[in-house]
Amino acid sequence: MTTEMKATAGxxxxxxxxxxxxxxxxxxxxxxxREGNYYIAAVSSQNGEGKTEANAHxxxxxxxxxTDTGLTPRQxxxxxxxxxxxxxDICTQLPADKYAFDSQRKSLKKARAAIAxxxxxxxxxxx
Length: 127
Fold this sequence. Notes:
Helix content is 44%, strand content 17%. Helix 2 (73-93) runs antiparallel to helix 3. By secondary structure, the protein is an alpha+beta fold.
C-alpha cells in the first residue's frame, strides 16, 4: 500500500531543549520550511535509562529520510526486501563464477557481498 508522504519537510534536527516543554530533554525541529524552523516534537526521559538522546536522533533521522525519499520507514524496509530478493534471484541465475566473464565475476562478487551485509552476515566489501 503506497501512501503519499505528507510529513514536514526536512532535514529534521535535534536540539537540547532550552525551555521546559513537558519536561523534555530534546526538541526535534525541521529546518526545511520556507518560513524558518518548525517544531516537530519533544523527547523526554521518564524512565531515566539515558536513551533520550538516541531516541531523539532516531526520530529526527526517520523524519529526514522520509522527507528525502518520500517513503515511510516501513515502505523503505519493504522496498529493501524486494530489491534483495531480486538481486539474489539474479545471482542464482547468472553463470557460475568459473564460467563468467571478468566483468560478471566482479559484479557477482559485489552483489553477493552486498546481500551478505544486508542479511547481517560478515562479508568484506567487494572491490
